[in-house]
From TrEMBL:
Protein name: Exonuclease domain-containing protein
SMART domains: EXOIII
Gene3D superfamilies: Ribonuclease H-like superfamily/Ribonuclease H
Gene Ontology molecular function: 3'-5'-RNA exonuclease activity; nucleic acid binding
Keyword Nuclease: yes
Domain of life: Bacteria
Keywords annotated in UniProt: Exonuclease, Hydrolase, Nuclease
Pfam families noted in UniProt: RNase_T (PF00929)
Organism per entry: Streptomyces ipomoeae
Classification via CDD domains: ERI-1_3'hExo_like
C-alpha cells in the first residue's frame, strides 16, 4: 500500500430520519457533499477532494440538514453538480487506491450510483475498482473512546488538536475526513497497525 483514500459523505436528512433509517416516504439518502483525502502510508495528507451534489428527488434541503451541516440552499444551488458527474469524479479521484470510511458510507455511495444509473445517467469510472472498507469496528476496538463518536469528533475523543486543512466542522465532509486522518496519524505514530484490508 503506497496511498489510500479516506472519504465521508453528507446526505439528505430530516428530523428522526436517522432513527427511522430513512424509511419515511420520500426520504432517500441522496448525497449532498463528498469529501475525500488521499493519504500516504504515514497518514499524511497528499491531496483532497470536495464537491457539492444536487439531490434529485429532494432538491430542497431541509432546515434540519442545513443546521446540521452548515450547507445552505443558495450555496448548493450555486456550487452543486449533478450526481452522476460528482460520483464519477469521486471514483476518478479514488483511482484504484483502497478507500475507507468511518461507517457504511460506501452503501450510500452505492445507492446513489444505482439511482443515477436508473435515470439513464452515465457514472464514469468503475465503482468496483477501489476496495472499500468501513474502519469503524477496527477503530472502536483499538480506541474504545471512539465507540459513540461520529467522524467529525474523533479527534476530540483522543484529545488531539483540532484538524486543520478544511473549513467548517463536524458534519462537513472534508473536515470529517481530516478528523479521521488525524486519528489514523496519531494511532500510526503510537505503533498501531492499520486494518489488514489496507495492506
Amino acid at each position: 500500500m503506497s496511498t489510500f483514500v479516506v472519504f465521508d459523505l453528507e446526505f439528505t436528512t430530516w428530523p428522526g430520519a436517522y432513527e427511522q433509517n430513512w424509511s419515511a416516504p420520500g426520504q432517500l439518502r441522496e448525497i449532498v457533499q463528498i469529501g475525500a483525502l488521499r493519504l500516504a502510508e504515514d497518514c499524511s495528507v497528499i491531496e483532497g477532494y470536495e464537491t457539492l451534489v444536487h439531490p434529485v428527488v429532494n432538491p430542497r434541503l431541509s432546515p434540519f440538514f442545513t443546521t446540521l451541516t452548515g450547507i445552505d440552499q443558495q450555496t448548493l444551488d450555486r456550487d452543486g453538480v449533478p450526481p452522476a458527474q460528482a460520483l464519477g469524479d469521486f471514483l476518478g479521484f479514488c483511482q484504484e487506491d483502497p478507500v475507507l470510511s468511518y461507517g457504511n458510507d460506501m452503501l450510500v455511495l452505492g445507492e446513489n450510483i444505482g439511482w443515477a444509473r436508473s435515470r439513464g445517467e452515465e457514472v464514469k469510472n468503475n465503482p468496483l475498482a477501489p476496495t472499500f472498507l468501513n474502519i469503524r469496528p477496527w477503530l472502536n476496538t483499538v480506541a474504545p473512546t471512539t465507540v459513540s463518536i461520529n467522524s467529525g469528533r474523533l479527534w476530540q475523543a483522543l484529545d488531539l488538536p483540532r484538524p486543520t486543512g478544511a473549513s467548517g466542522g463536524e458534519h462537513s465532509a472534508l473536515f470529517d475526513c481530516h478528523s479521521i486522518a488525524a486519528v489514523l496519524r496519531h494511532l500510526a505514530g503510537a505503533g498501531v497497525t492499520l486494518p489488514k484490508g489496507l495492506l
